[in-house]
Amino acid sequence: MLDKLIRKKGGEAKAENEDRPVLDETVIPRHVAIIMDGNGRWAKKRSLPRIAGHHEGMKTVRKITREADRLGIKVLTLYAFSTENWKRPKPEVEFLMRLPEEFLGTYLPELVERNVRVRMIGDHEHLPPHTGRAITRAMEATADNDGLILNFAMNYGSRAEITEAVRSIAKAVAENRIGADEIDESMITGALMTAELPEPDLLIRTSGEVRLSNFMLWQLAYTEFWFTDTLWPDFDENRLQEAIAVYQARNRRYGGVDKEDTD
Ligand code: FPP
Questions:
Q1: Gene3D superfamilies annotated for this entry (predicted)?
Q2: Mean pLDDT of the chain
């Protein structure tokens, strides 16, 4: 049973902390995907170097992972480094590539204890070896865990992912393993790096930017979006709950209509 902040369906329980929304535990999104943005601005506001913002952002990753687990979210996908982020100054890129090691070096025991499974989407092969090794080690150490899936999008780009999927399907057609007419949406979904994951129910982007930045373009087709001005290092449990409360108030029709509107 979740704590008193979460109401049983139809129940009357009031939130202990009135600032926090009362959530319906039967409508928790299965998969939450987050574009973690605003680290640089958080640092700038404090006259700190950008990397200080990324380091603070890493602490938010821990906080939000714990909260997602507590709320019963099944998959948390975090956009940690895009295929376009290589354009940043070299010292910043090097710092970002060290963060998975620091994060996992510090928190892997906690993730193991919490039954969290670490996985990643993105181009693992072209990560610096030390980054790739840290992630591989964490994926291996948590492979048998069946709790929250903490999915890092690292060196990830959705167009590259879709391109690779198309290439693999085209190859299957060229080799007569399938016919072109057999290609359908489920085949494309199955050829993506997220093949084993449910599609995101809720997408969050922090820092006030309102764009997708090449993130999960196929997978987000029917996802609910929630944008906040809060910068990622300031994002916390209350903001996540707020996002989920908004999600719970949405009416997901998947292109259809409500039953009462079928006249
Ligand atoms: C975007 O903010 C953020 C990133 C490109 C990096 C996100 C990475 C983290 C939050 C830490 C990841 C931690 C682990 C464990 C991998 P920005 O730098 O573009 O911010 P700005 O728009 O304010 O400049």
A1: Decaprenyl diphosphate synthase-like (3.40.1180.10)
A2: 93
